[in-house]
Design a protein that fits this description.
This protein is an alpha/beta fold. The chain has one domain: Vaccinia Virus protein VP39 (Rossmann fold), CATH 3.40.50.150. The protein has helices at 3-11, 30-42, 60-67, 80-93, 127-138, 150-162, 201-204; strands at 50-54, 72-77, 98-101, 111-116, 139-147, 165-178, 188-200. It has a seven-stranded mixed sheet, sandwiched between helices. Helix 3 links the parallel strand 1 (50-54) and strand 2 (72-77). The protein is globular.
């Protein structure tokens, strides 16, 4: 499947209708989700692999992975409304994903790859590192989106190294988010982010 076709399929999915600011929930757009997961696919980290999506929202990353041939996708999400949307989206896409309602700490087992669009840690400091710590704990390789700035890059490289990961590379991306919170004035916002590919100790050994 071509990336363009994947993006078209993902554009038909429903976004989380009620993102919660307390969890820094944002819907990732179909083009960005396709770019992120297809990049992982080209690196051999999707097809035939067990995938986890931490903070899966409406399920778009896990669904994309299944459409590209993952053997299993497990999504964990604390927001019940978002998870209900993920159930609807999986059926619409014609794929099976395993969904868990709860905090990311409840997920157990080993996965080949983690895909995630975690909180940036803007409203709740440390949330980004919490997600990274769990992802590195349970997987061989992590693909994670984070807000782009030199200070964030320096901070995350230090924290990722401290918790047992190694940044393999960064890919600059621009994601589109809609007007979902009261303080949003524009209909759409372009947000500059970095896609991190992170190797864990198991992958590097």
């Amino acid at each position: 499947m071509k990336r363009k076709h994947l993006a078209i399929l993902l554009s038909r999915l429903e976004p989380n209708p009620e993102p919660k600011l307390k969890w820094e929930s944002y819907n990732i757009d179909a083009e960005s989700a396709a770019e992120m997961v297809y990049t992982a696919f080209l690196h051999g980290d999707i097809k035939g692999k067990r995938i986890a999506d931490l903070g899966c929202g409406s399920g778009i990353l896990g669904i994309a992975a299944m459409l590209l041939g993952a053997s299993q996708a497990v999504g964990v999400e604390i927001d019940k409304t978002a998870l209900e949307t993920a159930v609807i989206n999986a059926k619409k896409a014609g794929v099976k994903i395993d969904l868990i309602l709860g905090d990311i700490e409840c997920i157990v087992g080993r996965f080949d790859t983690v895909l995630m669009n975690p909180p940036f840690g803007t409203w709740r400091k440390g949330f980004d590192v919490k997600f990274l710590r769990k992802a590195i704990e349970i997987s061989d390789v992590v693909y994670s989106l984070h807000k782009r700035s030199e200070s964030v890059r320096l901070f995350l490289r230090r924290e990722i190294s401290r918790i047992g990961g190694k940044v393999d590379w960064l890919k600059e991306m621009t994601i589109t988010i809609g007007r979902i919170y009261p303080f949003h004035k524009k209909t759409r916002y372009q947000v500059e982010v970095d896609l991190y590919r992170i190797l864990t100790r198991k992958r590097r050994s």
